[in-house]
Amino acid sequence: MYSKQFKMCVACVLCIVIIYCYMDKLRYSKMNNHSRLQFYLGKFKRADKEFVTNRKRTSKAEGGEVVDHKSSSTPRPPKVIYNFRVIYREPLTRLLIACGFQHEYFYLILGDNSDRQTRYALAKTRTHDDTKATLLRCLEKDRHWWNYYNRPSDIPFETKQNTLIWRGTTTSTTERLANRFTCVTKWFNKHRHIDVGFSNVSEGKNEYKRFVKGKMSIQEMLHYKYILSIEGNDKDSGLNWKLNSNSLVFMAKPTIVSWLMEDRLIPNYHYILVDSEFCDLVERLEWCERNQSRCKQIIKNANDFMKVFQDENNEVLLEKKVLTTYINNIN
Predict the structure, then answer these.
(1) How many domains in the chain?
(2) Distance between CA atoms of residues 309 and 183, nearest Å
(3) How confident is the chain (331 residues) per 10-residue block, as mean pLDDT?
(4) Has this prediction a pTM greater than 0.85?
(5) What are phi and psi of 202, to 5 degrees?
(6) For the domain that residue 183 is a member of, what is the CATH number?
(7) Looking at the structure, do residues 170 and 293 belong to the same domain, yes or no?
């Protein structure tokens, strides 16, 4: 017979599990369009009056551009100060026209963004503690979402190789938390079940040529049970398809958020949390090898999280609502 104390302990544990499950379901029930709209807007409650009043041209060093449509009464694609890459200009133009905002002022952050903003701005990404950047999906959408909406063929988790894999180029800096240079230099050819290396060298970082292993396709990476996600200049551009796969994602706590809402991912529930110095990779791998059923459940949780984005018509409507709310506030 079990003691009274033991039964009470078991009851307490069960209560904690039930409460956690309920809170988690509640968390997901709140991921409707209203809560997501608030998330993408950040804490943008009122216009940046100084910016709107002065409408000064921003310097390129500030990382943003002023877009001015009010000089013409005829609808036309936005004219942007400085270079505006096609992957940003064309989809944003289509969104502006669809919403009827060809002649409005706004502030835009071009390219990868890993800085906390001082002005209310439209952006692809923002830091997890940023209160001013408003997120859009269309900026570099294909790069981040193509392999989600066109999911690559995959194989069952149990048939994959029990190795942790990572490939990527030499973007970002060694000053960033959980950066790829720390990971690669620490684990390059150091463990038979950890296969990390650079696919190629970029941004002139030739000192890392000795860590290059060559590119791997998504199909090749999906033959491994465990896939490492590491942020680059901003977010990991492959995180979307990784969370939507039959492989288990290893990742440090995200510092950058995008339309994916990375900071709503729960450590060790949607992904395996690793420390920012990547010192615990072997420990995490050994735990996964001992707990394969738990690994499958975490993969399912990640897949379920990604289902929030599967209705592309809803995503389009939600992005229009984000832009409309932003433009109405800023102007």
Answers:
(1) 2
(2) 30
(3) 53 44 46 94 61 38 40 36 61 92 85 88 94 93 96 97 98 95 98 98 95 97 98 96 98 98 98 98 98 98 98 98 92 73
(4) no
(5) -135, 170
(6) 3.40.50.2000
(7) yes
